[in-house]
Amino acid sequence: MNPCRGCEHGCAYCFARPYHEHLGFSSGLDFETKIMVKRRAPELLLAELSKPAWPPEPIAFSGATDCYQPAGRDFKITRRCLEIAVELRNPVSLITKNRLITRDLDLLAKFAS
Ligand code: SF4
Predict the structure, then answer these.
(1) Domain that holds residue 52
(2) What distance in angstroms lies between residue 14's CA and the mean position of ligand 1's atoms?
(3) Helix 105-112 with 77-87: angle, nearest 10 deg
C-alpha cells in the first residue's frame, strides 16, 4: 500500500525512482519533488477490505515510497488507512525511515495487542 508516488527522502539508491517515469516525470529530481498523493486511498482500501472475497492477509505499507514521508504530515493518508485496518482487524507491516511513524503509535499499539 503506497499512499504516494515519489518520495521526498530522495535516497540515491532507491529502486522506485524509475516508476516515476511511468507518470511522465523524471526519475531524478522529479521523483523527490513531484509527489503524487493518493487522496482516495483510504476509501479504496475500505472497499477492498470489505469485500467478502478478501482473504485477511498482511498488507505491506511502503515499497515504492515511504508511507511516512513529509507529505504524510498534512494528508494523513497512512494514518487513515491504518485506522481502517485496525477497525477491520487486518494485520499490516510498515517500512519507514521517518520518525513521523511515532505519531501513529496509538494505532500501532492496537495492532500489537
Ligand atoms: S525512503 Fe524508501 S522510498 Fe523513499 S527514496 Fe528512500 S528508499 Fe526510496
Answers:
(1) 4-112
(2) 5
(3) 30
Residue 37 pairs in a beta bridge with 4
Short-list 46, 38, 47, CA closest to 69: 38
Please choose, from the candidates 81, 86, 88, the residue with its C-alpha nearest in 3D space to the C-alpha of residue 49: 88
| pLDDT of the chain, 113 residues: tens digit per residue | 999 999 999 999 999 999 999 999 999 999 999 999 999 999 999 999 999 999 889 999 999 999 999 887 889 999 999 999 999 999 999 999 999 999 999 999 999 99
**Which grid coordinates belong to 56?**
485477511
How many domains is the chain partitioned into structurally?
A: 1
List ligand 1's pocket residues with C-beta within 6 A.
7, 9-11, 14, 16, 65-66, 97
